[in-house]
Structure formats: structure tokens, C-alpha cells
Amino acid sequence: MEKEIELAIKRGHYVFVKSVDGSTLTGIPEQSSDPNKLKMRTALGSFWIPMDEVSHVSRLIQFK
Q1: Predicted TM-score of the model (pTM)
Q2: CB within 8 A of 17, min separation 6: which ones?
Q3: What is the model's pLDDT at position 1?
Q4: CA triplet 17, 58, 7: central angle to 5 degrees?
Q5: What SS3 class is residue 43?
Q6: Which helix (DSSP H) or strand (DSSP E) does residue 4 occupy?
Q7: How far, in Å, CA of 33 to CA of 64, rounded?
Q8: From CA 27, how far away is CA 50, in angstroms rounded?
Q9: Which residue of 7, 9, 37, 44 has the smallest Cβ count within 10 Å?
């Protein structure tokens, strides 16, 4: 899961994140100073998600 996040940060891909409580978030992950939190930039603003609350991550890749 963390490998997919690292690739998305490097390549500027969007990610779909599902948390353990079932909520979802789609956005661009950013490098975080805290390795235990995922920083996401979305249309609604920036969010910090604790990594232990993330249950699933998918990269969304656009073909141009």
C-alpha cells in the first residue's frame, strides 16, 4: 500500500483511499513530514489521514 502511495507522489497520480470506517477520499497525495500520516490534496482542501486508518489505496492513472 505504501509503495503505491510513493509511486503516486512521484508521478503525480490521483489515488482513491478507503478508510477502515468505510469513508472514501480521492485526491493527489503529497510528501508528508510524518511517515504515519498520509497528506492528500483534494478539491475540498488538504487532509491528513493516519496510515493505520487506511484500509485500501488504488492509484488512478490517466492516459493522455
Answers
A1: 0.83
A2: 24, 25, 26, 38, 40, 49, 54, 56, 57
A3: 76
A4: 105
A5: coil
A6: helix 2-11
A7: 31
A8: 15
A9: 44
Q: What angle do CA 36, 41, 47 make, to 5 degrees?
A: 50
All structural domains of the chain, each given as residue ranges with its CATH number in brackets, are 2-60 (2.30.30.100)
Please give the grid coordinates belonging to residue 25: 477520499
Q: What's the residue count for the chain?
A: 64
How does pLDDT run across 27-53, given as a tens digit for each residue?
Answer: 999 998 998 999 999 999 999 999 999
Q: Which amino acid is it at 8?
A: A
Unique residue bearing C-alpha cell 469513508: 23
